[in-house]
Amino acid sequence: MIPWHRLFGITLTDFFTDTAYTVDLEKDLSLKQQLLDIVIIEKGKGKPPSEFPDGLEDIGPHNLMTYKSHQQSMDAWALEELMGHYVNYRKSIEHEPDRLPPPEDFRLFAVAARYPTKLGSEVIFKKVKDGVYDVRWGVRNIRIIVLSRISKEKKNGIWHLFSAVPETVASGVTGYQWKSPASSVINELFKAYKIEGIIAMPYTLEDYQRDYVRQYIDRLSPEEILEKVSAEKLMKELSRDELLNLIKKKFAEADREEIIHLLEKLKSEDL
Q1: Running DSSP on this structure, what letter comes out for residue 47?
Q2: CA nearest 147: which of 1, 3, 4, 2?
Q3: Mean per-residue pLDDT, 50-59
Q4: 60-108 pLDDT per residue, tens
Q5: Distance, CA of 268 to CA of 13 (rounded, Å)
Q6: For residue 113, pLDDT beyond 80
Q7: Three-state SS for 271?
């Protein structure tokens, strides 16, 4: 069975790395095991992400999320379960004696790879922006995020990865900036899509590795490139023209003393 929920959760964990939020996966909310897919909690330390993907702009102290991959349906029962998890979770939080945390501290999110057509015919979807909708469920609002309909902006790269639309997935692979080593997650994601039958991916793991090298090197100074990236790796991952353009760009950013130092180092190492 493909671990879609785990891959989705790990990727969200990466997105919120070094921010004021932490991510819990498959949180147990009762003595009889009932797992909530994802909880994003504001811890008060650190800072928010520099930019949120569409649908998460109004994130709060406690954010409960249910997720459905392209092989699952986001239906009314999924929203009922989310509401049940919200009730249990809210009661489980330590707060003032005999008082629950205020309802405004909580946000509910239902994330689906594909548009929930049946659910959309049963309740009113209020469109917020492309791929983002609000649904009134009882006295609460649930934010619906449809990954296959999210706009193609770079900030939405994390959503594109799980859209199950080949071209959009490729956009996510190039657009999402990982904060932690990502090759194993990307590898699992590509294998999962292949197993599930989405095999016409226009983007391969080798493409990802090559683009990752480009992006990684682009963030380094000339000195750091020499220290951290071997000449052999540069030659392997980048074409001659790409390598020349990189050298021109990096040396244009360096001052005269840096250039002399780097040339002397290159000569001494006989590179």
Answers
A1: B
A2: 4
A3: 94
A4: 999 999 999 998 999 999 999 999 999 989 988 876 667 888 999 999 9
A5: 43
A6: yes
A7: coil
CB atoms within 10 A of CB 105: 15
Say how many C-beta atoms besides its own lie within 10 A of residue 76's C-beta.
13
Distance CA 266, CA 271 (A): 6
- Smallest Cα–Cα separation from 8: which of 28, 30, 37? 37
If you search the block for the tokens 């480009």, which residue do you land on? 214
> Per the structure block, which two tokens stand in for 130?
């492309």
Tell me the pLDDT tens digit for each residue of 163-187.
988 888 888 887 888 887 666 777 7
The tokens of 77 are what?
């029962």
Sort 249 into a burial class: Cβ within 10 Å, 0-12 / 13-18 / 19+. exposed
The model's pTM: 0.70
Contact assessment for residue 157 and residue 172, using Cβ atoms and an 8 Å cutoff: yes
Residues 219 and 250: beta-carbon distance below 8 Å: no
Helix (H) or strand (E) holding 133: strand 132-137
Question: What tokens does 219 get?
Answer: 């963030």
Tokens of 220: 């380094």
